Amino acid sequence: MKFERQALAALLAGLAMGAAQADAVNEVAYGSISGTAITFSELTDGATLDGLLSSGGVQFGERFLGQELAVAKAPRLGSTTQQDWFDDLSHGSPAAGLTLLAGAAGANLGAYDYGDANGVALFGAGPLAGAADGFGAISARFASPVSALGFQLRDADGGAITLSLYRLDGSLIQSVDLSGRTDGFFGFSRSGATADVAGFSLTNRDGYYGVSLDNLVLSVAAPVPEPGSYALMLAGMAVIGGVARRRRRD
Ligand SMILES: [Ca+2]
Ligand SMILES: [Ca+2]
Ligand SMILES: [Ca+2]
């Protein structure tokens, strides 16, 4: 019986560890995420996208049903006089099903061609028409949940950037703070390769044309057991082994 109690304690400890790790998102190398990049090359420079955009099997809009659109005003980096107006999605949370909504006409999404090998990128249009490029939110809904994603950030000038990853039921997996980043390729992977990332919202308060998104890759990796899972598996095997031995003795 003593052995059984110890095995049960180990089993419960393993379960607790698993639960504690279940909500983590780890930053990984962009290159480690396999998948076909969504390049937005079908969009033309300067295009204003008033409806939802479907590209590479992913839907893009401003926000999800349940998220409230608020407006945030923040000073431009390095300037005390100039301020920019941004989409703020920090109030409310997505409803179950992750239903995408488009922003108002001229304040939803747009395309900008950087004129280099990566060409056109997608930006969220902010609340002020005419001076809105990049200051808006971009939200994306995947065809099916994934365990890892990566993208290229453009126009990042060191301001505040937040990437929020959601499950299909609307619950937040994690908000990743990308503030202070500069242009580059970034990757994110769910702890234990759990394939439950159904979409994301990307918001920013980054001065000078906010930020743009390009080369989005999505991946469903084979689950990798974590130390907690190993402990759980070993404890489970020990319990089964202990029970089997006792039965044989009886
Ligand atoms: Ca591109
Ligand atoms: Ca917007
Ligand atoms: Ca910027």
Automatic annotation (TrEMBL):
InterPro entries, per the entry: Ice-binding_C
Annotated TM spans: none
Taxon lineage: Bacteria, Pseudomonadati, Pseudomonadota, Betaproteobacteria, Burkholderiales
Signal peptide segment: 1-22
GTP-binding among keywords: no
Protein name per UniProt: PEP-CTERM sorting domain-containing protein
Keyword tags: Signal
Annotated Pfam families: PEP-CTERM (PF07589)
